[in-house]
Amino acid sequence: MISLKSVCLVTKGVWCGKPPSINDEEQELTGVCFDTRNYYQEDIFIALTSDKGSANFHLPKLDGQPVKLIIIEQDVKRTHKGAYYLKVDNSMQALHLMARAVIDLFKGLVVAVTGSSGKTTFKHWLSCVLEKKYKVYASPKSYNNHIGVPISILNCALDADILILEMGTNSSGEILELVKMARPHISILLNVGMAHLGKFGSMPDVYLAKQEIFQFSREPKLAFIPADDSKIKTPKDSNVITFGEGSDLYDSKVIGLPVDGITKYEILIRDKKLNFSSSLIGEHVAHNLSGIISVSDKLEVRGSDMIKAIGKLANLPGRLQLVKAINGGWLIDDSYNANPNSVINLLNTIVKLDFSPKTLVLGDMAELGGQEELVVNFISERFPSGVDNLIIYGNFANILGKALLGKRPDLAINIIISKDQQSIHRHVKEFFSSDSLVAFKGSRVTKIENILRSYIDRDN
Fold it and tell me: What DSSP line would sit under 106-121, residue for residue?
């Protein structure tokens, strides 16, 4: 990937103690880690300094591990046997400089993905489809920020054909720095919604931040955008391809509602229709698959190979997973996170499923930043009929519940405002039956998944 000599030159670091020999400094190093809790025998460990202090405190945990290079900002009292130490002025800057150096060496295509929701799932699905033809490396988990993106670049094998990078943001300029580092050939804007609205202040600012994904692109400069969102400004110097509902080339729609857990979809590929079935649930699925197929088609993946790959796709943990409940009923685990758009997506999914009764357990939404009234109106106006019970927990959830009672009497929904997790358990049990569906949704801070786990049938 990168040699000891190259790391020293790129970062302008200084060797602490014995410098590498002429033979050692040309040695190629593979893999970079920044967290001792997740060390998997990478050659390089970088001790990042944060608000919590220097990572030097955790370096003794690497004892006995085969790490070859440790990058530090501050001197260490004792050294790790077998490792060289490189001291830099700024460890974060060093991480970014190393990533840029590797991007210069990488001969494959760089794909950048952003959006307000669904980025991680989309990235994973796209990788699974492209692997039918290419050697693909996709950033792990939700590695999408100023640490995750450079780490992903540095851990990509140089002989990969395609590198897929997820890019997230909660303030303007963040994606700009990431694309400046990665210089993608293909840029995908999945959607624009209200996630992190409180951080941005307004929806126009959210749009501007997401559209940074199209900056610093390289030929062929392919830009993929949703056809149904006119607020996205078309990048002037890119080759724009639209996908999703309303696209001339890659339209998408659901042609059969879920039956026995299987949904039928139809995606347009230029002048041909691609019909297939999938166990994936969620209103977003047709839209996301259209985006994946549009990218795969441009990269000349065969339609038959796409169908085979799509048939094996599954939702990631905590993201619209349909799981069996202990009572014989069903659960939807959508507990990974929550924003206004993803809540509406979940609701629209619930009402199309053939269960009774249908219950949503909704925890708080974070990072609204004074935009509670706007979000309440957004959800209230779009809240679909067909949900029998809404169990809500948390300050914002309580505001939403009271608003629905006042603004949407037409819903005929049973709204229960819970004060604690014990009362949630009590109410969930009231609606449990062999034909029931209970969905769980909330921001990470609510830890709504802790309640959900009590009802999962571990034997299925």
Answer: --SEEEEEE-SS-HHH
Q: Give the H/E segment covering residue 71.
A: strand 69-72
Q: How many residues does the chain have?
A: 460
Residues 166 and 88 sit within 8 Å (Cβ to Cβ): no
Instruction: Write out pLDDT tens, residues 347-380.
Output: 999 998 889 999 999 998 877 777 888 889 999 9
Q: Which of 213, 150, 227 is nearest to 185 (CA)?
A: 213
Global confidence as pTM: 0.91
Catalogue the E-assigned strands of 190-300: 222-226, 239-243, 252-259, 262-269, 272-278
Split at pLDDT 50, 70, 90, the class of 260 is low
Q: What is the DSSP string of 260-281?
A: TTEEEEEEEETTEEEEEEES--
Please give the pLDDT value at position 364: 87
277 with 262: CB under 8 angstroms? yes
The pLDDT assigned to 370 comes to: 77
H/E stretch holding 296: helix 285-298
What do you get for the CA distance between the two ends of the chain, in Å?
43
Amino acid, single-letter form, for residue 53? G
Domains in the chain: ranges and CATH: 2-89 (3.40.1390.10), 106-310 (3.40.1190.10), 321-455 (3.90.190.20)
Question: CA-to-CA distance for 328 and 324, rounded, in angstroms?
Answer: 7
**Cβ-based neighbour number of residue 63 at 10 Å:** 10
85-95 per-position pLDDT tens digit: 999 999 999 99
Transcribe 134-178 into DSSP letters. Answer: S-EEE--TT--STTHHHHHHHTS-TT-SEEEEE---SSTTHHHHH
How deeply is 75 buried, as exposed, middle or buried, from its count of CB atoms within 10 A (0-12, 13-18, 19+)? Answer: exposed
pLDDT score for 257? 65
182-199 pLDDT tens trace: 999 999 999 998 877 767
The CA distance from 238 to 225, in Å, is 11
